[in-house]
TrEMBL record:
<feature type="transmembrane region" description="Helical">
    <location>
        <begin position="114"/>
        <end position="135"/>
    </location>
</feature>
<feature type="transmembrane region" description="Helical">
    <location>
        <begin position="20"/>
        <end position="40"/>
    </location>
</feature>
<feature type="transmembrane region" description="Helical">
    <location>
        <begin position="409"/>
        <end position="430"/>
    </location>
</feature>
<keyword id="KW-0812">Transmembrane</keyword>
<dbReference type="InterPro" id="IPR020846">
    <property type="entry name" value="MFS_dom"/>
</dbReference>
<keyword id="KW-0472">Membrane</keyword>
<feature type="transmembrane region" description="Helical">
    <location>
        <begin position="182"/>
        <end position="203"/>
    </location>
</feature>
<keyword id="KW-1133">Transmembrane helix</keyword>
<dbReference type="InterPro" id="IPR011701">
    <property type="entry name" value="MFS"/>
</dbReference>
<dbReference type="GO" id="GO:0016020">
    <property type="term" value="C:membrane"/>
</dbReference>
<feature type="transmembrane region" description="Helical">
    <location>
        <begin position="250"/>
        <end position="272"/>
    </location>
</feature>
<feature type="transmembrane region" description="Helical">
    <location>
        <begin position="147"/>
        <end position="170"/>
    </location>
</feature>
<feature type="transmembrane region" description="Helical">
    <location>
        <begin position="89"/>
        <end position="108"/>
    </location>
</feature>
<dbReference type="GO" id="GO:0022857">
    <property type="term" value="F:transmembrane transporter activity"/>
</dbReference>
<feature type="domain" description="Major facilitator superfamily (MFS) profile">
    <location>
        <begin position="22"/>
        <end position="435"/>
    </location>
</feature>
<feature type="transmembrane region" description="Helical">
    <location>
        <begin position="292"/>
        <end position="309"/>
    </location>
</feature>
<dbReference type="InterPro" id="IPR036259">
    <property type="entry name" value="MFS_trans_sf"/>
</dbReference>
């Protein structure tokens, strides 16, 4: 009895220390990461589009072209992380993208913007799946929904804090002789370089090397993770790195993720532009700071819902409806926002969309590491994120192009709703297939 209680105490303190020591720091890295890649959405309607003479389609292409370099190097980058260790690789990625992001301060043409967005994608490649993989290597699977939920809080909070921060930097027009949007790029890039250098010294690759854990905590964490690794490796359906690329289940997860990320980036890149359009639509006028604060509104409730939703998934055990219900809520709310009669009701409905997308994402990321381990987990997580980021490219480019063709956001937002509906349907189909496979296995073992 005492042994079990002692083990339970060691378990609790180990998970608590990981949650306090590692998760907030990796979340801070993610915060800066998401702010730097979406900074263009604040720059666009606040002087950049005008200064560089961009159409909506060109702005959409500049937003989306980022993902081409990102996609090409995603899987190789995650395999490099597996080989060289997360500490060095994540720090290297962060400093690289900080330097590229800094160069946006002096961009002079549409072509220069395309080149820098492409280079930013190449520099950032592998950071997000690397961070997911890194945190997954620190906690047993039963704690992953909770830990990834805490990590994911950084994404909606990027906009809650980042939108007013970007607006405040844009207001510093004339600082160092630069336009406001150029000051903003300068201000959001420098933290990436600084925190990247700090990460090299702060992060630890594995529990056995963590001096801030006691000997018992190190041993318990290492033993638990090794036991899980052995269980997954000995499973009949454990795929190798090569077969991950042709694994049907991995590809269904890719498509489910695609729908969510399409919605996420359609919202991230175009929400500031949609808010800027309220003046013509509803006759309301907002200054730069007010626009920044309105952009932040949907993301604060999203952070709260994300926290409680992933906590429920952790306590109850992940159910398919933890992902299906948010997908359906997003599918309905995105097109619905177009038919609201005021700025307030439009933002309210888009808040439902943000809550839907963010509540599903951390619970979604517990799925691949349930049946993948080691290098195959690195490849699988990277592949799913790669396909998701195709949605990042498509959302930027298609939303802009469809807006230019149709003269409004109606058609592009119905496309977003369609992709999120597809995610809901595929999640239910995957859940049905898993239940059938489990039933067949039980029947075979009882025979």
């Amino acid at each position: 009895m005492n042994h079990h209680r002692l083990q339970s105490e060691v378990e609790k303190s180990a998970i608590r220390k990981v949650s306090i020591r590692l998760v907030p720091f990796v979340a801070l890295m993610f915060f800066i990461n998401f702010l730097d890649r979406t900074a263009i959405s604040f720059a666009g309607p606040n002087g950049m589009n005008q200064d560089l003479g961009l159409t909506a389609a060109q702005f959409g292409l500049a937003s989306g072209i980022f993902f081409i370099g990102y996609i090409l190097l995603e899987v190789p980058s995650n395999l490099a992380l597996h080989k060289f260790g997360a500490r060095k690789w994540l720090a290297r990625i962060m400093v690289s993208w900080g330097i590229v992001s800094l160069l946006f301060t002096w961009v002079q043409s549409v072509e220069g913007l395309y080149v820098l967005r492409l280079a930013l994608g190449i520099a950032e490649a592998g950071f997000f799946p690397g961070a997911i993989l890194f945190l997954s290597m620190w906690v047993p699977s039963r704690y992953r929904a909770k830990v990834l939920g805490l990590f994911y809080l950084a994404q909606p909070l990027t906009t809650v804090i980042g939108a007013p921060l970007a607006a405040a930097l844009i207001e510093q027009h004339g600082l160092f002789g630069l336009e406001g949007w150029r000051v903003m790029f300068l201000g959001v890039s420098l933290p990436a370089i600084v925190i990247g250098i700090v990460a090299w010294f702060y992060l630890v690759d594995r529990p056995m090397d963590a001096r801030w854990l006691t000997e018992e905590e190190r041993r318990w964490l290492s033993d638990e993770l090794e036991r899980e690794h052995v269980e997954k490796s000995s499973g009949a359906h454990h795929p190798s790195v090569r077969t991950v690329m042709f694994n049907g289940r991995v590809w269904v997860l890719c498509l489910i993720y695609f729908g969510f990320i399409y919605g996420l980036y359609a919202l991230a890149f175009f929400l500031p532009s949609i808010i800027a359009g309220f003046q013509a639509q509803f006759g309301t006028t907002f200054n730069v700071i007010e626009k920044g604060l309105i952009t932040a509104i949907p993301y604060l409730p999203a952070a709260v819902v994300l926290y409680f939703w992933s906590r429920d998934a952790s306590r109850r055990g992940l159910r398919s409806w933890h992902i299906t219900l948010p997908a359906l809520a997003g599918a309905v709310s995105v097109p619905m926002a177009l038919y609201m009669s005021s700025a307030f009701s439009t933002v309210l409905v888009l808040t439902v969309t943000a809550c839907a997308i963010f509540s599903a994402l951390p619970t979604f990321w517990t799925l691949p590491t349930r049946f993948l381990t080691g290098a195959s987990a690195a490849a699988g997580v990277a592949l799913i994120n790669t396909i998701g980021n195709l949605a990042g490219f498509s959302a930027g480019y298609l939303t802009g192009a469809l807006h230019d063709l149709s003269g409004g956001y109606t058609v592009p937002m119905f496309v977003v709703g369609g992709f999120m509906l597809l995610s809901a349907v595929l999640m239910q189909l995957l859940d049905g297939a898993d239940k059938r496979a489990l039933r067949d296995t039980r029947t075979a073992s009882n025979a």
